[in-house]
Amino acid sequence: MPATIDHTDTDVILVIDDEPQIRRAVRNALSDPRRRLVEADSAETGIDMAASERPALIVLDLGLPDRDGLAVCVDLRSFTSVPIIVLSARHSDREKEKLLDAGADDYITKPFSTLELKARVRAQLRRAATRPSTDPADGIIIAQHLTIDLIGRTVKRASDEVHLTPTEWNLLRAFIAHTGRTLTHSQLFAAVWGEAAGDAQQYLRVYVGQLRRKLEIDPVRPRLIRTEPAVGYRFEPGE
Amino acid sequence: MTAPPTRAWQPRTWLFWFAILGGVGIAMLLARSRLDKAHVALTFLLVVLGGSSAGGRALGVSLAGTAFLAFDWFFLRPYETLFIADPLDWLVLFAFLITGVVAAHLMERQRREAESARTRADEIDRLATLGAETLNAPRAEEALDAIASVIRQAMATDGCAIFLRQDDGGLRLASGSPASETTEAHSALLSYTVDHAEAAAQRSDGTLTLVGDTLARRSPTAGYSELLALGIPLTVRGRVVGALQLSSTRPFTVSDDQRRVLSALSYYAALGVERLRLAGAEEEAESLRRADALKDALLASVSHDLRTPLTAIKAIANEVWRGGDPGRALVIEQEADRLNELVDNLLELSQINAGSLAITVALNTVDEVVGAAVERVEAAHGASDGRIEVHIANDDGILVGEFDFMHTTRALTNLLDNALKYSPPDSSIVLRAWQHRDRLLFAVEDSGRGILPGDEERVFEPFCRGRGLADGVRGTGLGLSIARELAEAQRGTLIYEPRPGGGCRFTLSLPAGTAPAE
C-alpha cells in the first residue's frame, strides 16, 4: 500500500511499520518536496519494496507482527547497503548493540521527537552521499580543528603535531574508515585488533578516552568521537 | 597436622653419640684402676640418657647394648673377656642394661606425647582462628571461602568445594578452593552422601561406597585410602544443609588424625552454609518487604503523578480541538514527555527492586560517563544552558573505574537534573571527579536551598520529595532513590551533605580501576 507524496525523481524513503499512527508521524516528520515516502505495513512487503523501490533510506520498526526485526535487518543487508534507521520501544543496550552488529545504521527509541528523527535521517542521507570520499587521494583529512595525514601518519591540532601511540593511530584510522557510522565496541575492537579476543578489549574505552584527550578540545564534551552510550562510538568530522 | 610416627634416621646424631660413648669409654679405661663399677655404670647411663633424648629410642637402646658389652669387656674382671668372675657383677651388668633400655623407652614415650600435644595445640589454634574468621567475615561467602581453603590445605588435596543444599533438594556450589578453577562436582557422590547423611568415597577403581561417620573412630580406616573424591554431609541440628567435596587428580588417603580435623572443620563448613542460607532467606524477605512498600507508594503516587499530566493533556487537547491556540499543543508534548519519564523511572525502579537489574561492570573512563550524563542533561534542559562546570582530576593519567556505564550515567544524570531543577536559574552546577585511594568520587554541587535538616535520608526513599521546595518545580521523587539503588547495585555509595556556603552536595563513590600501560 504505497502512499506517495511526490513523484519527482528524488530520494525515496521506505517506512516499514505496522502501526498507521507511527507511519503517519514519520510521514509528517519527513515530508519534504525533494523526497518521496513509500510505506509498508509488514516485513514481507517491506523487503519486497526495498528491492523494487530502491530507497535511499529505510526506517524500520522492530515490533513487526510477522517477523523479528533483527532478522529483517539481516535480510535487508543481504542485498542493499542503504542506511537503515530502526525504531523501537524501550530496548536494552545489548539489543541495540546486536542491531548495529546486524547492519542497522542508527536507532531511535519510541516515543521519539520529530526533530530527532529528522536530524538522524538527514545525517544518514548525508553520510550515504559522501561515503566514497572518506579516503581522499592526497590522504589529507580536515576534521574540525584537526589535520590528519593518512599517508604521513601525522595529526596536527591547529599547527601543533599530536603524538599518537600505534594503538591510538589504529583507532583513529578505524574511526575515519567508518565516518558517521555508529561503531559498536565489538566492531571497533575487531577493526583495530582483528577477531582475536584479548586483554585489549576491556581497555578499549580507556584507549578511546586517551585518544580523545589528545584530539578533542573538551574531552568531556567530545565533538569528534561521539559516545553512543553503552553501544559504541561515532566519528563525526563535521562539514 | 600429622605427627611423624618415627623419627627419621639421623646418621650424624648416631655418629656423635657413639663417638661420645667411645671417648667416655677410653677416658675411663685410662683411669680404670681408680674407678669403681658404680662410676662406670652411672657414666655410661648418662651417655645412654643423652643419646635417647637426642636420637630417640633406637639410638638409646643401641647405646645401652654397646655400653653393656664395653662394660663387661673392659671394666669387669677378668678384663678383655666376656667372662665374669664375681657372680654379683652379673647383677650390676644386667641392672645397667635394663635401666638403660627402660630409660630409652620412657624418653621416647615422653617425646611422642610432647609432639602430639604440640600438634593438637596447633590444630586447636587453627580451628580457633578459623572459627573467629568465620564469625567475623562480613559476608557468608567469604567465610566459606576461608573454610574451603583451610580444609584443602589441611587435607593436602587438589580441590575442596562446599555445596549448599537448596530447598528443592538440589546442590549449589557455594564456595570452592582454589577459587579460580571451576570445581568439577562429583554429583553422584554428593547426592549419595546427602541422601544417606553419611560420608561417601569414590575410589580410583571407580567404586562408590559409604565410609561412615567421620567422627566415629571405630569405622574402618581402610575406607579412607585410595580416594579420588570424598563427600561429607554437612549437618546442622540433625538436618543436612549441604555437602563438602574433597577431590584430587591422584588417589589420596585420609589419616586418622586428618579425619579428626576434617570432622571439626566440616562442622564449621556446615555453620557457614547455614549462615549463607539464612542470609539468602533474609535478603529475599527484605526484597519482598521493599517491593511491598514500593507498591504502596506507587499506588499512592499514581493518583497524583500520573493524573496531573493526564489532566493537563486532556484539557489542552480539548482546547486546541475547539479552535484554541495551536501553540498550546507544545504543552501537550511537554506533559507527554513527563509521563514518559515517569514510566521509565517506574520500570527502572521495579527492575531494581525485583533484583532483575542487569549489571555490566567494565573498565570505563570518567570522561566518558560524565560526558554522557552532561550531554543528556544539557539536551533535556536546553543545550545553550552552559550551567554545568566539569572538573575531572585527570592530571596523573586518565581516571578509570570498574562500573556499569549506563547505570552510572543514569545516576549522574539524576543528580545533575536535580541540581539544575532545585537551584536558581542562572547559578552554576559543579561536577567534580577525582580518585581517592581505590575509590572514584563524583561530587555534584549546587547553590540552591539545600535539604532541610531531618530530610537528609528521607529524600532517598521512593516517591519522597524534600520539604520546602520552590513552587512550580515538578518531580516524581524517584530520581535520588534510583540513583542510590544504582550506585549500591555496583558496589558504590551515594551520600548527601550540605554544601559549605549553602546548597546540596551529593557524592557518588565507585570502585576505581587501572588503566593499561602504553
Structure at a glance:
The complex is a heterodimer of chains A (239) and B (518). Chain A is of the alpha/beta class and 239 residues long.
In quaternary terms, these chains amount to heterodimer
User: What does the overall shape of chain A look like?
Assistant: globular
For the largest interface, the chains and their residue counts are:
A-B, 27 and 28 residues
Q: Helical stretch count of chain B?
A: 11
- Output the strand order for the largest sheet of chain B: 2-1-6-5-3-4
**Average pLDDT of chain A, to the nearest integer?**
84
Largest sheet of chain A: 5 strands, parallel
Shape of chain B: elongated
Integer average pLDDT of chain B: 83
Category by helix and strand content of chain B? alpha+beta
Number of helical runs of chain A?
8
Radius of gyration of chain B, Cα only, in angstroms? 40 Å
Major β-sheet profile of chain B: 6 strands, antiparallel
Terminal CA distance of chain A reads 38 Å
Helix fraction bin of chain A: 25-40%
Task: Explain what you see.
The complex is a heterodimer of chains A (about 240) and B (about 525). With about 240 residues, chain A is of the alpha/beta class. Helices cover about 40% and strands about 20% of the residues of chain A. Chain A is built from eight helices and twelve strands. In chain A, the strands form three sheets. Chain A has a five-stranded parallel beta sheet with strand order 2-1-3-4-5, sandwiched between helices. The two termini of chain A are about 40 Å apart. Residues about 1-10 of chain A have low confidence and may be disordered. In chain B, helix 9 (about 365-380) packs across helix 10. Chain B contains eleven helices and 13 strands. Chain B is elongated, with a radius of gyration of 40 Å. Chain B is of the alpha+beta class. The model of chain B is unreliable at about 1-5 (pLDDT under 50). Chain B has a six-stranded antiparallel beta sheet with strand order 2-1-6-5-3-4. In chain B, strands 8-10-11-13-12 form a five-stranded mixed beta sheet. In chain B, strands 7-9 form a two-stranded antiparallel ribbon. Helices cover about 50% and strands about 20% of the residues of chain B. In chain B, a hairpin with a 2-residue loop joins strand 5 (about 225-235) and strand 6. Chains A and B meet through helix 8 of A and helix 8, strand 7, helix 9 and helix 10 of B.
